[in-house]
Amino acid sequence: MRELARVDLASPDDEVARQVDAACREVGFFTLVGHGVDPALQQRMDTAARAFFARPEAEKERVAMVHGGRAWRGWFPLHGELTSGVPDHKEGFYVGRELPVDDPRVVAGTPLHGPNLWPSEPSDLRPAVTAWVEAMEAVAQRLARAIGMALGLGGDWFARHLTADPTVLFRIFRYPPVPPGDEGWGVAEHTDYGLLTLLAQDDQGGLQVRGRDGWVDVPADPGALVVNLGDMLDRMTEGRYRSTPHRVRPTAGDRDRLSFPFFFDPSWDAEVRPLPLAGEAPADDAATRWDGTSLRRLDGTYGDYLTAKVARVFPALAERATPGPGPAQAAPTSSPW
Known about the structure:
This protein has helices at residues 13-26, 39-53, 57-60, 104-107, 125-150, 157-161, 231-236, 302-313, 315-321, and strands at 5-8, 29-33, 74-76, 82-83, 86-87, 91-96, 166-175, 187-190, 196-201, 207-211, 214-217, 225-229, 246-248, 257-267. The chain is α+β, with helices and mostly antiparallel strands. The strands form 3 sheets. The protein has an 8-stranded mixed beta sheet with strand order 1-2-12-9-14-7-6-3. The protein has a 4-stranded antiparallel beta sheet with strand order 8-13-10-11, with no helix packed on it. A hairpin with a 2-residue loop joins strand 4 (82-83) and strand 5. Helix 1 packs across helix 5 (125-150), helix 2 (39-53) packs across helix 5 and helix 8 (302-313) packs across helix 9 (315-321).
């Protein structure tokens, strides 16, 4: 793999499904154009995000994640998040679906559900991010339709069974530059957790994907979205579609890199089980997977799985904000659909 496949979402539905299917089976990453999102909206969000990260740390601390409780929302400082147990060379801001404190899920203490924490300055951050998240969810639903068609399930399958009320999370990451020759990582090798990640980025570059022939640099194209599959889609397709390791190399120079990953995942209570697909699934790739684990053994609900994963990313916060371990690891024994 020398470069990522390019999918044009403005193409006819059957052509989009064909393009998506080929990309998901080969590497699990592709760039998406023709999505119809106004580039001025990304620029607006980029400007507001840079202004926020430039605020004094004491001011950002007022919306730190420690104040968000079980909702896991807010700001974290440089090196405040772990990937594979290693601190990331990035600063970030977490948001999700805006839920009032009297929402039944918030009252019940459901992790990752609740109100967002918004800074007073810059005042444009909240409306810019809110508009972006709404736009990304619409794009993700269109992609889910294409995936359903590509898998032979029908265009409305995901909306009917998994994403009628999706788990929607969004992050803004700032990667400060590093000195020339620095071999550290902005984010170490990993795969994402859920169904789909839609990533917008600036023109700095640094994202790398591990293909069959080694690591490949992802072009820094602010006008395109980078799409990758998470472990849930890999698990539910039993390896037909691949969640692929990726990492971020900080850039040298004097400019920060900003990235904007949007996570479109199954409904919180959705069961983690195989999809009703025709044909024989590929062999389990646990022996060659980056972390040596078998996705085939995951079951339970997506909410349980995600809670356990996020607790590893912020272990200190998890002790205060989240319940115990995630789902059981026994393989499913029957078809759920």
